[in-house]
Amino acid sequence: MSNKTDSNVYTVLFAIGMVVVVGALLAFVASSLRPKIDENKRIEKQQNILYAMGVNENDESSAVFVADNVVGEEFKKYITKQLVITEGTNAVEDEQAYLIDIKKEQSNAKEGIERRLPLFVGEKDGNTFYVAPIRGKGLWDAVWAYVAMDNNMVVQGAYFDHKGETAGLGANIKERFFMDDFIGEHLKDASGNFAGIAISKSNGDPLNEEKTDNEVDAIAGATITGDGVAAMIKSELKLYVPYFKTLNN
Amino acid sequence: MGLLSKKDAKLILDPLADDNPITIQVLGICSALAITAQLKASIVMTISVIFVLGLGNVVISLIRNIIPSKIRIIVQLTVVAALVIIVDQVLKAFSYQLSKELGAFIGLIITNCIIMGRFEAFALGNGPWKSFLDGVGNALGYGIILIIVGFFRELLGSGTLLGFKVLGDPIAKTGLYATGYENNGFMLLAPMALIVVGIIIWVQRSRNKALIEDH
Asked: Residue positions of the PTM FMN phosphoryl threonine (chain A) (predicted)?
């Protein structure tokens, strides 16, 4: 290294120059790609909601969404109402409900601001589905899900996803063998109280034939992710219980 | 190897075996543990590291004469971080599904010590073309080990390869499972990655005694 690059003035100037150049470059990349990324997120959200209510292109073993280019139309076709629920039972229709950021609502609730609960009502083959978006914590980072229920809070389908769970272990919550276990599973116990669905390591029911036990089989090596999923289902879907009660009156 | 001189070819080929970053230089072990439970994740990580290390080596090599030596590590870190963020953003915009699957790994690249190691040991003292070859070579050498470890961990731990059930269905008891075979769940845990890497190191050194270090 020459003497020139060793001087303090040069070092400081270089650092400032580098920050400006790199900062400008990243800001440019981020802002020019922003619209495209937002569009991708909207498509994904609509695909997830449709997936949970059974509108998907699943083959034998893998989870496949409806194609990106038709998801907008399919969403309009199957989702008949988008509701925003406040004060437990007060449901208002809102075309933009799918844009509600669950994470933001959760932190609002912590600060005492009333939480808005989005709920998507879909019709398929004469059945009505109520799809709730929920969010919780896994081992490393956030986990979230879209759960489709009937009016008795029996799960009709679910889509799970995560930000950074371990590949091959916790990340398997988005695999069919895990998600499909939830289909038909009851969220209420035998006496009709909300119980949630536990992720159990000891239920002795790997094929999940018992649908009323409020349990599904856990993933080996993913205890904390599984506990996080169970806690999310319990605390988040519980918020919808008052609304579901009004449906059956 | 008509395109490359003998010396240049050595830059690519040496890290594949006799100067492998994982088994000989013992760098990048952390990510070799973290992401090799599945073969697919290993392959994806390999491709990402080839890109970041190849390009990063070129960038560092181009500015090697104007980097103040006092803050060279910070400059290197900034270059890796910027490249990784660009890769992440471009993937999010143009290949959203892929970017979701890579999510955690892309960020992990920043902390991969092979990258800083090659910047410091090679790119700071060599021209861009040589640095590029060195970067690609080392990333490939890293990737080979990742893929070997990923192959065995997924096969023995989950009975699948790239998600396909190659050994039969463990729940319906078909294929190999009909004979009483069981997946070894231990293979999915991080310690087994270390043991598999250890076995590779053992095999490699017993085939080539020159690699055994003196004590």
From this structure: 223
The per-residue b/e assignment along B105-137, b for 16 or more CB within 10 angstroms, e otherwise, is bbebbeebebbbbbbeebbbebeeebbbbbbbb
Task: Classify residue A125 by burial, with Cβ atoms within 10 Å: 0-12, 13-18, 19+.
Answer: exposed
Domain regions of chain B by residue span: 21-151
The C-alpha atoms of residue A66 and residue A47 are separated, in whole angstroms, by: 6
B127-151 confidence digits (pLDDT tens): 999 999 999 999 999 999 999 999 9
Tell me the H-state helices in A53-63. none
Q: Which two tokens stand for residue A224?
A: 């904390």
Structure tokens at A68: 């990106």
| CA neighbor of A145 nearest in space, from A10, A249, A51 | A51
Closest listed residue to residue A141, CA positions, set A110, A102, A171, A99: A171
Burial class (CB in 10 A: 0-12, 13-18, 19+), A87: exposed
> C-alpha A90: how far from its chain's center?
23
Which residues of chain B are modeled with pLDDT < 70?
Answer: 1-3, 101-104, 215
Contact across the interface for B188 and A40, Cβ inside 8 Å: no
Within 177-196 of A, beta carbons closer than 8 Å to B belong to: none
Find, in chain A, the residue whose alpha carbon is nearest to that of B184: A220
Q: Determine, for residues B68 and A163 on separate chains, whether the beta-carbon distance falls below 8 Å.
A: no
Are the Cβ atoms of B90 and A29 closer than 8 angstroms? yes
End-to-end CA distance of chain A: 81
Q: What sign for the dihedral angle of Cα B28, B30, B35, B38?
A: positive
